[in-house]
Every structure is written in structure tokens, then in C-alpha cells.
Write a structure and sequence with these properties.
Elements lengths: L7 E5 L21 H14 L3 E4 L9 H9 L6 E7 L5 H14 L4 E6 L10 H19 L4 E4 L4 E4 L14 E4 L3 H10 L2 E4 L4 H17 L5 E11 L2 H12 L4 H9 L7 H12 L5 E3 L2 E2 L12 E5 H14 L3 E5 L3 H11 L12
Parallel strand pairs: 1-2, 1-13, 2-3, 3-4, 4-7, 7-8, 8-9, 9-12, 9-13
Antiparallel strand pairs: 5-6, 10-11, 11-12
Helix pairs in contact: 1-11, 3-4, 4-5, 5-6
């Protein structure tokens, strides 16, 4: 019998205008705002989640770093997984900003590195990932308190680290995801936690094996994270009806427009989420309890774990047995589903914050 170690369980604060009762039917009360997103974070902390993702999108909602600074003093236990987009800020200033945030959080900062085009930019994938690799390498060195001399394609500098240091004196964990060949190589060389979007168990196992081997070639060990939606109810029938309700008002043209809003809407990972929907059964399930219908109305992570509390728990434990020890979960509306998952499933998971 496989003995499962503790995992990290994170929720999602919908800073990126991605909160609905029903996809495609905007609700002004659920739009990204300081008040709404603060309530999501406070709910997740009260329920005992380990971490919470603060997503970033220029055209979509409020800023992740500014929000993190504002919410820092209103939290005491939950970590913040702050998404930052490579290239939006000069790396030494980004390092100082992240170190300051970590101080404000008393060491509870983690960082989600996004390799997206910047607003108004048109940059092919390969150079974009080269920029990401340089950013991650220099950022980590500065946050580790090291002086840097780097002559690269995108980052050229010789500089001492900022005076302000993280609480630990070392870089926070860097989370990063991507399916393309250059994305995998960046993760293997530079990331601490490699994030995956939903897929079949066979594909997830293959990806873990590939990324484990790539990291080993660089003398490194990766942790693995899984980003998914959840729809959990007292019974499976209730959960499936709730899933159907989420997309019941969604027009296909509206769904396509929502998916196209993201800066990474043409990425390899997004295309794979679309392939999952095509390969699913008529009711949207690509394997037991993994429902792809939710991807009809959003870009990025496009599938949900659907079931009663025991079924959702077992699905997560299946992933843990495969080697995943970090989950970033979400559901619609985010605060309501946070309450359901936090009450029905979270108490049955052996979870704790990941350490560096």
C-alpha cells in the first residue's frame, strides 16, 4: 500500500475576472475587485487552505502584486502564490518587490512565474521562454542574496542583491508550467514546482516521467503541482447537476470570446485542453469524474473534478500516488465552492505548506 505524504492544497482568488454563477453570464458582484477577491482569500484562510493563487492578466481584473501587498496584513497563516509575468518589470526591481512582499507576509510568499507575452507585445514562443529562463535564474540569485553578473539576450546586468531580503534569506518557491518543448526545458532547469493542467491519468504519468528525467539531467529534483477546478456536492448526482448548471447559459460564441481574451490563448497547453474536450464523451467526461465542459467558457485550465466528497478525495489521492504533492483548485462561484471543498474534502486530506 502506498503511503501518501502531506500535500499542499491551494485555492484560487479570481483577480482575473473569472468568477461566475454561470459561465458566460457576468455578475457584477463577482467581478474582480478588492472586496470580492479579499473575501475569497479570507474564506480560504479560515477553512485551512495552505496557499492561494493570485492570477495575473493585464486586461483581466486587478493587479496581483498590488493586491498581495494589500491583503498581506489581513492574513496570518495562508501563503500567497503571486503570479508575475516575465518582462513586465526589470528583474532587480522585481526581486526587491518580491523580497518586500515576503517580509510583509512574514515568509509566506510563493511565486507563480508566467511566460506570457506582455500587453501590446508580439514575441514568438522560443524567445519568450528564453526571456523567462533568464528572468527566473537572475531573480532566484538576487533573492538568494547573491551578486549577479549576467550577460544574456534579454537581461544584461552586473549588480548586488537588494538590501531587503526575504525572511528565510533565500528565494521563495518558484512555480511554473507549460507543455511546449521550450517550456519543459525552462521548468526542468529553473522551477521548484512544475504545474500541470488537467489531463488523463496516462498523459499525466507520462508528463511526470518526462519532467523528472529532464530535471535529473540538470541535477535537479522537481515537485509537481496540479491545477484543476472542482465541483463537489453531497452526492454524485448533485455534483453532476451543478456542473451542468455552470455551463447551462453558455453560448458557444460567447465561450469562444471568453477563451480568446487570454494572452496565452494559443499556447500548447490551451490547445491540449481543447483536445480533451473533443475526445470526451457526450456528457463531457474524458475519464471518471474529470469533466471538460468547464473549458467551453474559459481559457487555460479547462476541466473539473466532479463528484461527491469521497469521489473527489479519491481522485486527488490518485494524483498524489502518481507523485503530485501540490494542488491549486477552484470552482464557481469561487467563494461558495471554496466553502464546499473546504468543508467536505479538505479535512480528509493530509496537507501542509511546501517548504523550500
Amino acid at each position: 500500500m502506498t503511503v501518501l505524504g502531506p500535500c499542499e492544497v491551494s485555492w484560487f482568488a479570481a483577480l482575473c475576472d473569472d468568477d461566475y454563477e454561470q459561465l458566460g453570464d457576468p455578475n457584477a458582484d463577482l467581478l474582480s475587485s478588492w472586496d470580492h477577491c479579499s473575501r475569497i482569500v479570507e474564506t480560504a484562510e479560515r477553512l485551512g487552505f495552505d496557499n492561494i493563487l493570485l492570477p495575473s492578466g493585464y486586461a483581466l481584473g486587478i493587479d496581483s502584486v498590488a493586491f498581495a501587498a494589500g491583503i498581506a496584513g489581513r492574513t496570518s497563516t495562508i501563503r500567497l502564490l503571486v503570479a508575475v509575468r516575465c518582462g513586465e518589470m526589470w528583474v532587480p526591481q522585481l526581486a526587491r518587490q518580491m523580497a518586500t512582499l515576503d517580509r510583509m507576509l512574514d515568509g509566506r510568499l510563493t511565486v507563480n512565474i508566467i511566460s506570457s507575452e506582455m500587453p501590446g507585445e508580439n514575441l514568438d514562443g522560443e524567445p519568450r521562454y528564453r526571456r523567462t529562463a533568464e528572468t527566473m535564474r537572475v531573480l532566484r540569485s538576487l533573492l538568494n542574496g547573491e551578486s549577479v553578473r549576467h550577460e544574456g539576450e534579454f537581461v544584461n546586468l552586473e549588480i548586488d542583491p537588494p538590501r531587503v531580503r526575504t525572511v528565510s534569506g533565500a528565494s521563495p518557491l518558484l512555480y511554473f508550467g507549460g507543455l511546449s518543448e521550450p517550456a519543459r526545458e525552462v521548468a526542468a532547469r529553473e522551477a521548484d514546482v512544475y504545474l500541470m493542467w488537467p489531463d488523463t491519468k496516462e498523459r499525466i504519468a507520462d508528463l511526470i516521467a518526462d519532467m523528472t528525467a529532464r530535471a535529473a539531467r540538470h541535477g535537479r529534483i522537481l515537485r509537481f503541482g496540479y491545477r484543476a477546478h472542482v465541483v463537489v456536492r453531497e452526492t454524485e448526482d448533485e455534483a453532476r447537476r451543478a456542473a451542468d448548471h455552470i455551463v447551462a447559459a453558455l453560448d458557444d460564441e460567447v465561450g469562444a470570446a471568453i477563451r480568446a481574451r487570454s494572452l496565452d490563448s494559443e499556447s500548447v497547453g490551451v490547445r491540449r485542453q481543447a483536445e480533451l474536450r473533443v475526445s470526451s464523451s457526450d456528457d463531457g467526461y474524458v475519464e471518471p469524474h474529470l469533466w471538460t465542459g468547464i473549458g467551453r467558457g474559459r481559457s487555460g485550465c479547462g476541466a473539473a473534478i466532479v463528484g461527491d466528497h469521497a469521489q473527489v478525495l479519491e481522485k486527488l489521492n490518485d494524483y498524489r500516488r502518481m507523485g503530485i504533492d501540490a494542488f491549486i483548485l477552484s470552482g464557481y462561484p469561487h467563494r461558495d465552492e471554496c466553502e464546499r471543498f473546504g468543508t467536505l474534502v479538505l479535512p480528509h486530506l493530509d496537507h501542509a505548506q511546501l517548504s523550500a
